[in-house]
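Backbone-to-sequence.
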């Protein structure tokens, strides 16, 4: 098996059919051995019935369950179940174009040192986004970085999102620990960035991480994800996770010094942001999101320690 298309989902019965239908329409795949694996992350809707229906149309479709809540647990289960040498992730709201599977295979052959590589992701907004939304759009996995493949530098904090991400299974087996600190968003807890934690381990290995614009997908973003009630907790969760993703490659006294440097820099950015936007943070949603991200990044180590993430007791 060359490729496993893994789709972690939580209550995605209404969203998943469009993804599966588009996978049915893939072209230039006769030369590729590939499968589709849906990982049910403890759903309570009629997802099993939807999968059962589509298995009659897609013989390559498999189904498994992961009862531990969180995208990180679902991705670990996907790697454990995958038969492919490459594990290519889609979310249940990301629609691949008709050449996506073939582009996944082609890039692996032309870039043998790529341990992981991400897709070009376009937004399909259900309603127009707020003014200046482009400043925070990348946090919603919108990834448009040109038409030429891009190598992510080893010391860069810029990494691809999990939607549309491809990882060599052998790289995951060698470099990703069995348990990570971050597990992904769950009900009542928006702590995220479990995908960046995984990629940070690969970034510290001899393998490369790339952006492949030939792998195009469309991210469907409903109106609710453009509202304050969703965006503020979402950006807060990203900020709270940053202590882990920032310091994963450092140890001992260097980790404490690096943490202090980040805190000083965060505090500086908060003051500059307040000087620039002043009272606009009360009316400008994007500015409010940016301030929330900076503030939660500043207190990230204290939050994670208090909640037990850094002591293995969450």
């Amino acid at each position: 098996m060359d490729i496993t298309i893994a789709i972690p989902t939580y209550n995605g019965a209404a969203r998943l059919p469009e993804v599966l239908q588009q996978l049915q329409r893939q072209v230039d795949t006769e030369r590729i051995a590939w499968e589709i694996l849906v990982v049910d992350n403890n759903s309570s809707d009629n997802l099993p019935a939807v999968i059962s229906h589509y298995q009659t149309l897609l013989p390559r479709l498999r189904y498994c369950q992961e009862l531990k809540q969180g995208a990180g647990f679902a991705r670990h289960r996907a790697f454990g179940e995958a038969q492919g040498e490459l594990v290519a992730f889609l979310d249940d709201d990301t629609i691949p174009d008709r050449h996506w599977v073939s582009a996944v295979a082609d890039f692996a052959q032309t870039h043998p040192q790529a341990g992981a590589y991400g897709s070009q992701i376009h937004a399909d907004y259900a309603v127009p986004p707020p003014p200046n939304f482009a400043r925070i759009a990348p946090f919603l996995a919108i990834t448009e970085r040109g038409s030429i493949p891009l190598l992510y530098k080893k010391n860069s904090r810029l990494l691809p999102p999990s939607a549309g991400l491809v990882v060599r299974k052998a790289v995951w087996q060698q470099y990703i620990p069995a348990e990570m600190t971050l597990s992904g968003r769950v009900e009542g807890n928006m702590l995220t960035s479990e995908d960046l934690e995984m990629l940070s381990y690969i970034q510290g290995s001899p393998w490369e991480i790339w952006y492949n614009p030939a792998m195009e997908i469309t991210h469907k973003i409903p109106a609710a994800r453009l509202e304050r009630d969703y965006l503020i907790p979402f950006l807060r969760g990203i900020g709270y996770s940053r202590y882990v993703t920032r310091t994963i490659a450092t140890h001992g006294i260097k980790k404490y010094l690096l943490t202090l440097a980040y805190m000083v820099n965060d505090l500086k950015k908060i003051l500059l942001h307040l000087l620039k936007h002043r009272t606009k943070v009360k009316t400008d949603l994007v500015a409010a999101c940016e301030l929330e991200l900076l503030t939660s990044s500043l207190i990230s180590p204290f939050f994670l320690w208090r909640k037990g993430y850094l002591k293995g007791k969450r």
